[in-house]
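sorry to bug you again but im stuck and you know this stuff better than me. below you get a single protein, a line of residues and a line of whole numbers that encode the local backbone shape. mainly i need to know what kind of three dimensional shape the backbone takes. anything you notice is useful, everything is just below:

***
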Amino acid sequence: MVRIAILGATGYAALELIKILLSHPEAEIVAVTARQDGSPHIESVHPSLAGCLDLVCEDLESAQVAERADFAFCTLPHGLSSAVIPELLAAGCRVVDLSPDYRLNDASVYEQWYGVVHTDPTRLGSTVYGLPEVWAERLREAELVANPGSFTNAVVLGLGPLLAGQDVEPTGIVIDAKCGVSGAGRSPKMMTLFPECNESVSPFSVARHRQTPEIEQVLTQIAGQPVETVFIPHLVPMDRGILCTIYAPLTRSVDENQLLDRLREFYAEKPFVRVVDHLPSTKDTLGTNFCDITVRCYRGRAIVIACLDNLVKGAAGVAVQNFNLMCGFAETTALLPGAHRRRRSERSGEAE
């Protein structure tokens, strides 16, 4: 059993992470941290965990975490992960970081977009980027993995194979993205209050969303040439889910069947990407670690549609995917539908 600590356990992504790991046959959650007074029990923070995990949220130092755990998932806000991860790594604790602190290769770009000085800049550019569908082999030996942003995950999975195959131009790309309210996190904000967001769709962070440089950096690595995008996210009145409609100029005359074949070939051995003929919707991937993708051609453009659950494939699910690869477990462990039921059967000695 791998002993696991979850740092910053009060958020939505942390809750999903706990739920997935409770169904993992090789994982044991031994510590959850939060900077809250009184060391509240985890079920008082997340009532849906009542009777599932008997731990209190503690404000632990990195050395204390490393004493208890072999592996840590950091779900801390940006700027805080990079303050604790160096000590965790020095103590021999492997880490998946769900914050943006190690996603970008350039400290000056990070500081420009996130507005804080990076406290561990020497690891930028060498940290393994946690996109299993592209960099699975690198993940197997990694000590630190930077989990992708949820928008970036959907965009790169949808568009990456077409850029790699030179089917679309690397410029003139427009990304129209829709996200549920949980994507803004659990801390209250004016735009996510019910009277503000209910029955309303609104753009946000136009031309300044912090995942813009991440999207372009990863697509550039896949394409082998600079990629430029116009990224426009929108908040929609639903709890969770991301749907990206991506418009990319074609490099030559092709039909959608050829592009679908490109996607199917790229993801032939990838268990969590489903290339579909129909137009996908967020309900198709709700609560799962799947990303559904399709493509259409229209007036010289590829129109790629990709959707996923921002809290699972966009955060906690891909984090566990990365954990599985890092620890040598089957990539799908605890992530396929019905995994929680199978784990309960194993614990009670029942036949599956």
Summary: The chain has two domains: 2-148+312-348, 150-308. The chain is about 35% helix and 20% strand. The first strand starts at residue 2 and ends at 7. The two ends are 21 Å apart (CA to CA).
